[in-house]
Amino acid sequence: MLIIVIFLILGIGGTMILRHTTNTAVDRQIAGRISEQPISAPQLGKTDSLWRNGSGTKSDGKDTNSKNKPTRKITKNARSIIIYFSRSGSTELLASKIAEKTHADILEIVVKDSYAANYQRTLSRANSERENQDYPKIDMKVPSLSQYNTIYLGYPIWAMTLAHPMISFLNSYGKTFSNKRIAPFMTQGGYGQGNSVQRIQGILRNQGSRNNTFTRPLVVDGNKVDQADQRVTRWTEQITNSSN
Ligand SMILES: Cc1cc2nc3c(=O)[nH]c(=O)nc-3n(C[C@H](O)[C@H](O)[C@H](O)COP(=O)(O)O)c2cc1C
Questions:
Q1: Chain segment 113-129, per-residue pLDDT in tens
Q2: Where is the Flavodoxin-like domain positioned along the sequence (predicted)?
Q3: Ligand 1 in contact with 54 (CB < 6 A)?
Q4: Ligand 1, atom 4: nearest CA belongs to which residue?
């Protein structure tokens, strides 16, 4: 009898310890939430020497969505919307922080074939897309953007410019951006914003979008988005205080 009792206690205790350890491990992978869905962002917490400017960063192979639905929050009355793409979660986390401050609607850009979990394969694909000017196909329903005055545009920097899904999105929908204020935000591997803002301006112009204004961009290192709260607050306050 005593042996059975000891066995039961050890068994239950062991299970509890195991469950606690597993939960802690899972919690550590969840960097935040966007529209209530968890965000994993493997670059966070890496020291600069381990991070190596983002080189080698894995994704979940589904542009952060292997366990989630693509983020989509569209309401009737919002006057601003966050439109973003993120492969490995850092830009998504930045988008979630902007959403918390602004209560803007949210639309995640989804491509038909998501980028590989493996960094080198993603890089090769991106290089070939760029050389051939053959950008990915978008696979999502895009609502009318007419109700919005401000569009927060979020992307990772790829090869010193916009990540390709954002180029595809703007090539297809940029013509509906006339008269809107654009607030660019991005995460990058330490080399900065590149020509990404000029690129957005050029695409919008080519698409026939007129009368756009641009805010100062928000540029954050991909491994430090969890330390960017104050910058996000200052940036969003500046924008919302000068709302058009
Ligand atoms: C294909 C590719 C190209 C990249 N090129 C650059 C670059 O030119 N400059 C830079 O600073 N970071 C570069 N990076 C690093 C990403 O900008 C950085 O890791 C970013 O935080 C990723 O954001 P995400 O987690 O939202 O996908 C590149 C990453 C990838 C996958």
A1: 999 999 999 999 999 99
A2: 80-240
A3: yes
A4: 158
Residue nearest to atom 19 of ligand 1 (CA): 54
Contact 35, 71 (CB under 8 A): yes
β-strand partners of 39: 32
Ligand 1 pocket check for 159: Cβ under 6 Å: yes
pTM of the model: 0.90
DSSP letters along 157-214, please?
EETTEE-HHHHHHHHHHGGGGTT-EEEEEEEESSS--TTHHHHHHHHHHHHT--S-EE
Q: Interior CA angle at 30 toward 32 and 162, to 5°?
A: 65
Separation of CA 44 and ligand 1 centre (Å) = 13
Q: How many domains does the chain have?
A: 1
User: Could you tell me the residue range of the domain that residue 161 belongs to?
Assistant: 2-241
35 Cα to the center of ligand 1, angstroms: 24
CA of 6 to the centre of ligand 1 (A): 54
What's the CATH number where 230 sits?
3.40.50.360
